[in-house]
Design goal:
By secondary structure, the protein is α+β, with helices and mostly antiparallel strands. Among the domains are: 62-124, Alpha-Beta Complex (Type Iii Antifreeze Protein Isoform Hplc 12); 135-222, Elongation Factor Tu (Ef-tu), domain 3, CATH 2.40.30. The protein has three helices and seven strands, in the order H-E-E-H-E-E-E-E-H-E. It has helices at residues 30-58, 102-105, 203-214, and strands at residues 62-68, 83-89, 135-142, 157-162, 179-186, 195-202, 218-222. The strands form two sheets. The chain has a five-stranded antiparallel sheet with strand order 3-6-5-4-7, covered by helices on one side. It has a two-stranded antiparallel ribbon with strand order 1-2.
Length: 226
Amino acid sequence: MTKNRPQVPSPPGADTVVRPDIAITDPEPPRRRRRSFMVIGAVMVLAGAVGFAGLMNASGERSDVLALARDVPSGEKITEQDLRIVSLPDEPGLKPVAAAQKDTVVGRRAGAALAEGSLLTAAQLAGRGGLKAGEALVAVEVKRGMAPVDALRPGDSVSLVTRPQEGAAVKEQTELDEVAGRVAKVGVPASSGDVVVQVAVAEGDSGLVASDASAGRVAIVLKRGS
């Protein structure tokens, strides 16, 4: 018969587990985190702007050129208020007038209708006398009722038509069927109702037009849409 051994009590502290001390830190306040994100975002935006500026500079040189600040009808004088300066990358296909030539452009007439926002080119400018290359200016005195005088304006596109010569056979007439022209200036009607209209025509047609105009046989027709 066995006897139960008496249980010896464990010494004090034998069941106690010793754990190392762990430092307790407080989490970073949310406000500091948001501020850090804002700083990082600002840096990224700045870097992007610098990169974009560098890309634009790398794309080519830029030049100051002239553009239209408002519409200018054909034949009208160009004023300083009609022009504005814009900076554009140099492009071989574009040949706008340089901003440095602004003083030479002011006072010249538009050789065609100029639209607001478009670039100004030398081809859109009439010559110093209101003429383009290859044109001649002819003074046409038209009789009363042979031209819509009240409707004519500088720059209007017109057709010059010859009235048959009185008493001449059709075969003997050097008849001018139709010659295209552009009104340069409209004079003041005389007491008789006759008025002198200065018209720019092709140099090759100027002699014939002047000859028929001197005989008072030229009528002026205003073209539709001009």
